[in-house]
Amino acid sequence: MSGKAKHQYLSKWRCPSNIALVKYWGKHDFQKPMNPSLSFVLQNAFTETSVELHKDGNQKLEFYFEGVVGSFGDRIEKYLDHVSAELPWLNKYNIRIHSRNSFPHSAGIASSASSFGALALCLTELDFAFSGKEMDSPEFWQKASILARMGSGSACRSVYPVFSIWGKTKLFESSSDEYAIPVTEGISPVFSGLRDAILLVDSGTKEVASSVGHRLMEGHIYQRSRIAQAHENINELYLAFLSGDQEKFITVVENEALSLHALMMTSYPSFILLKPNSLELISRIRRFRDKSGIPVCFTIDAGPNIHLLYFEENELDVKAFIEEELLVFCENGKWIDDRIGEASPNPSKRGVKESVFVDDCIFEKLIS
């Protein structure tokens, strides 16, 4: 936090989006997950946000997205009203927020995860500065994850590097429905080279908001089975991480992706978000894997766009495959080249106040 003038403070953070491998679908109470989820953050898809506290004028909140007044402002205002119970100093200041994404809003990437993650990191830094607490502690990241969750459930996973788990599971005693935890210990080096090619089938607004889909899980006929499946898949996926088992990784990830959409199709009312080109891409990815022996797979969020996951050592072959066979099924031939976000597993290197960088700027504290 840097003070610009008396009663004026500024915090600025960059936070990545994330893609879930074991999906969060359905919630209870306030933004708590019905089942645990496991995700990884992206390297190039991030939101950069600044929060300025001041006592100038009478406007309580100003929100600017990429330089203009953002339509997201109403949601931010409701969010700040809610978290003010956790951050009582918020009511003493007017707030000016500037935010921008490194990726198009319609790119099939979860912008709410990176947006609320970045905002939560700013608010947590300000809170720790006001209370005199050290940022260089696990408590800082846990608090940021809690605040992020209150804005968007999946955002709580974005405040950590590489892999994280959100939701109580017997696999990790420290896991919680309140916040995500980082998962770094013992993971095979093969997964450090995980790549994500985001194949853009349809960049339009989602036909059904995720919040609606979450609510439909409350009385879903497969609710209990889904919860059990998620716990089992997290266990299987973590075993794959430890052993470097790419085949098991592929099996679990594709099972989770298709299960998510099966839950949507069997909810009441039901909805189908996959497009004909989504199904064609899935078919071609599987055919390529069978013919070439190259370990590729797909995952899908609550939309039509396909995330093609592969490993660093196969990059040239997979990119040739994308160019030659897949782009014709993408909207205007567009795709986004991304990869797993890398950062130091040592929390003390992620929270240095005066220093900016965490490896390739995944968690970057931007000094004004």
Mean pLDDT: 89
Radius of gyration, taken over Cα atoms and rounded to an integer in Å: 20 Å
What is the element string, with H for helices and E for strands? EEEEEEEHEHHEEEHHHHEEHEE
Low-pLDDT ranges: 1-5, 344-364
CATH class of the domain at 189-339: Alpha Beta
- Structural class estimated from helices and strands: alpha+beta
Specify the helix fraction band: 25-40%
Instruction: Tell me what the CATH architecture of the domain at 189-339 is.
Output: 2-Layer Sandwich
Shape: globular
- Note the quaternary state here: single chain
In CATH, the topology of the domain at 189-339 is named Alpha-Beta Plaits
Count the E strands: 15
Number of helices in the DSSP assignment: 8
Within CATH, the superfamily of the domain at 189-339 carries the name GHMP kinase, C-terminal domain
Distance between the termini: 9 Å
Percent of sequence in beta strands: 15-25%
Largest sheet: 9 strands, mixed
Please specify the SSE layout and strand pairing.
Blueprint: E1 2-5, E2 8-22, E3 27-28, E4 32-33, E5 37-54, E6 61-65, E7 68-69, H1 73-83, E8 94-101, H2 111-131, H3 138-151, E9 163-166, E10 180-183, E11 194-199, H4 210-216, H5 223-243, H6 246-265, H7 276-292, E12 297-299, E13 306-311, H8 315-326, E14 335-339, E15 364-365
Parallel strand pairs: 6-8
Antiparallel strand pairs: 1-2, 2-5, 2-15, 3-4, 5-8, 5-9, 6-7, 9-10, 11-13, 11-14, 12-13
Helix pairs in contact: 2-3, 5-6
